């Protein structure tokens, strides 16, 4: 209330101005003029950038179909830009006109600023949900960013419209109203949902991101005109995620009121309520289909609907019962028992509420029933999700009651990925995806998951901050495990890479030697030196210096010279040429033998044998004993390839499928193998049914083989492309979904709701 010292033209909140007065009329005209001018400039700038953005995306499109979508979107926006812009600004003008005449939009029971329209099933499909989420996100972000300025605009407009309460959702120039107006305008465009979502992002970037100055202008203009000049843009106390007992009892914090769970970023009641409204329509249609054809409906309990406090109290009693049961032993942990508990929680909750009220049963409101069913379907999905090992499914399914309590307190959990409860469940499921008994022999991950589940069951009441704390604790644990696994994974990859390089070098050495020998029949001594000692020298040279080095070229030149030196010298010219070659052969051989760690005595013995051999070649005297020593000391192996230390064949761990050509497999399995990305998780099933989960750690640039490791970084499997395709084809391997659990669950739930269950068969006594 204003005091006596304030100027007479100052308007206090307690005052009520007649919207029809000349003074108020002038102020409203000013506000409309400011809004129209600012929004027209922002919208024009947005449309200029839409064209450029779609063109850039078309140039970078991953395929022709995507490119066509972007080009079609460009043409549609160019053709209908004027009408879309006109519709948007016209809707804003109508909202301002309604405001100026005192016709504020009323909020429904859920705090939504939008009238509860009759939502058809065709309007709540996947694309509609994506659009709703995009709008919800941009509204929440901007209302948080502009909270102070927007609060001041709300209070000042509330004064000049006769004192009617105004909040973020009913403000005609608030982010919610502007986003809704643009949504109406977007109906003029016939474009793919992908293009629509891009346009919404650009609306957020170029319009909503620029309305700061609009609010500053309105606040300054009204303050200068004497409307709450003392107001300093302070935000009224907003409710938090942890509602007080009184607010819970009154239902204030349900379902989506207050600040967002993502660390103080508030979102509007209207945005979250619109998302829930879409799901509510699907639930209504589904329940209608289930009840069609029934002879008589079940009796409806009488009396008032249970309050939030009653619901939470009943859930807390059930939660304490679950918390008292063992998680790691006993029949209660069987998957069948957990599945039964998940399916029957709704019935148990209604019975518990009825007992608290002294009744046989109870009924909850439609919105609360939707929430109960939605959480039930979420945990049914967890129990059916093949990405999770059965042991982890059982553990996570025990969280149904804590998550139902969160959902009743704050239904934004279903719409926002940043909600702490949602992030914790996603993190637990992602960690569990790579779990197996073999990879968790010490039980660290299982025990950590079990500990988190137990803490939620024992400690969670209504303080959502526990989810942030446990998520941080889990992340710290996973970071330590990841660093340990990365070291082991690196060692496995380096070891595999080293073996492959060695194998590749041996193959290359064998090819070079065998190719140069060709059809020639070499003396045993020459043959043995090339296929043993010299082959090892070539391998070492390839590994150390590479195939482009002078050393490698010299090693190949030695092979040719050495083979030439073994040919018979028929005349004086041949003998003269051989004598010229021998010093170089000896130098190269000494150098090569020293590189592969030949002992000096062995080198001298071998050279002595070669001297005796070359004396024979030159027609010089050689004793029979010399010849016998040469033949006995270097006996050749059956063929050139087998003479080298490691046979030049496929690796020892060769898949059976490796010997088949790519054409031997269905193309879709080969494509599936080729599309694998490092970091993706697979499940391998052995012939005895034992399953092991492994992550693709590395694809060899040498052999193209795929290396898989478990969560500890230890090697699990090593497959070629063909071997992996064969495993996919036989069912011995399958790729685990890399998307977040909550996203997968919500997609599956929406799809399930869009296909109403058949009505149960009626029975007669």
TrEMBL record:
Residues 485-512 form a coiled coil. It comes from the Bacteria. Residues 238-262 are annotated as: Disordered. Keywords: Coiled coil. InterPro entries: DUF1631. This is Uncharacterized protein DUF1631. It comes from Luteibacter rhizovicinus. The lineage of its organism: Bacteria, Pseudomonadati, Pseudomonadota, Gammaproteobacteria, Lysobacterales.
């Amino acid at each position: 209330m204003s005091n006596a010292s304030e100027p007479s033209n100052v308007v206090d909140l307690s005052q009520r101005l007649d919207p029809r007065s000349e003074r108020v009329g002038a102020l409203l005209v000013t506000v409309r003029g400011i809004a129209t001018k600012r929004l027209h400039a922002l919208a024009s700038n947005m449309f200029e950038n839409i064209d450029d953005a779609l063109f850039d995306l078309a140039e970078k499109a991953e395929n022709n179909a995507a490119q066509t979508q972007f080009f079609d979107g460009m043409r549609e926006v160019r053709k209908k830009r004027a009408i879309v812009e006109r519709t948007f600004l016209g809707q804003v003008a109508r909202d301002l006109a309604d405001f100026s005449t005192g016709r504020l939009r009323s909020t429904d029971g859920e705090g939504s600023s939008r009238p509860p329209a009759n939502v058809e099933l065709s309007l709540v499909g996947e694309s509609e949900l994506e659009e709703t989420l995009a709008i919800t996100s941009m509204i929440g972000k901007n209302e948080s960013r502009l909270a102070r300025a927007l609060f001041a605009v709300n209070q000042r407009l509330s004064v000049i419209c006769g004192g009617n309460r105004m909040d973020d959702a009913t403000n005609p120039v608030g982010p919610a109203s502007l986003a809704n107006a643009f949504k109406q305008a977007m109906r003029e465009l016939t474009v793919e949902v992908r293009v629509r979502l891009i346009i919404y992002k650009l609306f957020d970037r170029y319009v909503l991101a620029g309305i700061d100055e609009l609010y500053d202008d309105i606040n300054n203009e009204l303050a200068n005109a004497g409307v709450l000049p003392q107001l300093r843009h302070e935000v009224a106390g907003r409710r938090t995620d942890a509602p007080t007992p009184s607010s819970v009892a009154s239902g204030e914090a349900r379902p989506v009121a207050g600040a967002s769970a993502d660390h103080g970023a508030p979102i509007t009641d209207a945005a979250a309520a619109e998302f829930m409204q879409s799901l509510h329509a699907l639930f209504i249609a589904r329940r209608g289909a289930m009840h069609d054809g029934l002879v008589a409906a079940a009796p409806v309990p009488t009396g008032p609907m249970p309050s939030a406090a009653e619901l939470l109290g009943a859930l807390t009693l059930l939660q304490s019962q679950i918390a008292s049961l063992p998680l790691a032993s006993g029949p209660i942990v069987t998957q069948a028992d957990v599945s039964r508990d998940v399916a029957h929680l709704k019935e148990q909750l209604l019975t518990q509420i009825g007992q608290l009220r002294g009744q046989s049963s109870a009924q909850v409101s439609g919105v609360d029933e939707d929430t109960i069913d939605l959480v039930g379907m979420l945990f049914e999905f967890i129990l059916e999700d093949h990405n999770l090992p059965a042991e982890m499914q059982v553990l996570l399914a025990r969280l149904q009651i804590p998550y139902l309590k969160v959902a009743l307190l704050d239904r934004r959990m279903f719409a926002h990925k940043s909600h702490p409860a949602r992030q914790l469940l996603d993190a637990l499921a992602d960690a569990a995806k790579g779990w197996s008994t073999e990879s968790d022999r010490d039980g660290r991950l299982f025990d950590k998951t079990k500990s988190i589940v137990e803490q939620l069951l024992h400690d969670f009441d209504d303080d959502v901050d526990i989810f942030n704390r446990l998520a941080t604790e889990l992340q710290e644990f996973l970071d330590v495990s990841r660093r340990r696994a990365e070291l082991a994974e690196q060692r496995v990859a380096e070891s595999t890479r080293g073996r492959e390089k060695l194998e590749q070098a041996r193959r290359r050495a064998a090819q070079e030697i065998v190719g140069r020998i060709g059809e020639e029949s070499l003396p045993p001594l020459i043959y043995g030196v090339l296929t043993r000692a010299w082959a090892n020298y070539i391998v070492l040279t390839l590994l150390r210096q590479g195939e482009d080095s002078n050393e490698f070229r010299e090693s190949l030149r030695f092979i040719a010279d050495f083979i030439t030196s073994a040919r018979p010298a028929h005349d004086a010219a041949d003998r003269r040429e051989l004598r010229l070659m021998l010093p170089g052969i000896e130098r190269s051989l000494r150098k090569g033998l020293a590189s592969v760690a030949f002992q000096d005595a062995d080198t001298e013995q071998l050279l002595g044998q070669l001297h005796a051999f070359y004396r024979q070649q030159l027609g010089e005297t050689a004793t029979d004993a010399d010849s016998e020593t040469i033949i006995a000391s270097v006996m050749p192996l059956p063929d050139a390839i087998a003479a080298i230390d490691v046979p030049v064949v496929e690796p020892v761990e060769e898949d059976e499928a490796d010997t088949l050509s790519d054409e031997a497999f269905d193309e879709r399995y080969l494509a599936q193998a080729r599309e694998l990305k490092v970091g993706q998780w697979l499940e391998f099933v052995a012939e005895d049914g034992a399953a092991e989960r492994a992550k693709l750690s590395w694809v060899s640039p040498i052999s193209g083989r795929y290396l898989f490791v478990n969560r500890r970084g230890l090697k699990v499997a090593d497959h070629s492309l063909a071997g992996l395709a064969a495993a996919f084809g036989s069912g011995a391997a399958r790729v685990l979904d890399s998307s977040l659990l909550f996203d997968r669950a919500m997609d599956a739930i929406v799809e399930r709701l869009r296909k109403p269950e058949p009505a149960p068969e009626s029975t007669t006594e």
